[in-house]
Amino acid sequence: MSRIGRLPIPVPSGVDVVIDGQNVTVNGPKGTLARALHADMLISREDGTIVVARPSEQKMHKQLHGLTRTLVNNMVVGVSTGFRKGLEITGVGYRAVLVGRKLQLSLGYSHLVEIDPPEGVSFELETPTKLAVVGIDKELVGQVAAKVRASRKPEPYKGKGVRYAGEVIRRKAGKAGKVGGKK
Asked: Which CATH architecture has domain 9-80?
C-alpha cells in the first residue's frame, strides 16, 4: 500500500470539506479551493479525517493513490494556514518594489520587469532583496515563484540573479589566469 496514500488527512477546526463524487471543495478561514480528482479514487470522510483509497492494485491506481491524497492535503493546509515561497535577489543594484499588487524587478536589464500576480496570489516584500510569494493554492504559488525566478536565473560565476530562499547555487571557478609566467 502507498505509504503516503494510506495516511488519513486531519481536518482542522474551521475547515469545511464537501465531497461530491470526485469533486472536492474545501472552505477555510483563508478562502475556498475546489478540485476535480480522478474518477477511480475513492474519497471518504471518517470522523474528522479524510481517507483516500484505491480500488485495485494496478500500477496506475497505486500511482494515483499518493497523488490524490497529497492534492487533497494541500487543499486543506492551504485554506487553513496558506503557503509561502521565499525568494532572494543577489546582485549590485538588483531589487524589487511593490507597485500596487504588481511586483517590479530591477535586474540589470535596460527595462524593469513587471510581474502581475494571478488571483489568489500576492507578493510580500521583507527587504528590497527578499520577497515572498503567498497564497492558498500550493501549485499556483510555486508556479508564480518559478516565473519570478525565471526573470533572471542565478548565474554560476558570481551567483547574481533571483533564487529560492535557501537554494544553493553551484559556483564555477571562472578564468584560471596565467599560471607559471613566460617560458
From this structure: Alpha-Beta Complex (3.90)
State the architecture of 83-164 in CATH terms.
Alpha-Beta Complex (3.90)
**How far is CA 87 from each of CA 41, 159, 162, rounded to the nearest angstrom?**
36, 14, 7
Instruction: Please say if the pLDDT value at position 183 is more than 60.
Output: no
Same fold yes or no, 9-80 and 83-164:
yes
Grid cell, residue 58, equals 494496478
Sign of the torsion formed by the C-alpha atoms of 54, 59, 62 and 67: negative
Closest by CA to 145, choosing from 168, 112, 166, 122, is: 122
- From CA 158, how far away is CA 178, in angstroms rounded? 20
Judge if pTM exceeds 0.85: yes
Residues 172, 150: Cα–Cα separation, whole Å: 20
Between 59-80 and 138-150, two packed helices, what is the crossing angle to 10 degrees?
A: 90
Q: What is the distance between the alpha carbons of residues 59 and 159, in angstroms, rounded to a whole number?
A: 42
Query: Mapping DSSP to helix (H, G, I), strand (E, B) and coil, where does residue 66 land?
Result: helix
Q: Can you read off the three cell numbers belonging to residue 101? A: 499588487
Contacts of 102 (CB under 8 A, 6+ apart): 114, 115, 116, 117
Q: Give the pLDDT score at 182.
A: 60
Q: How far apart are CA 12 and CA 100, in angstroms?
A: 33
Residue tagged 497564497 (cell numbers): 135
Domain positions in the chain are 9-80, 83-164
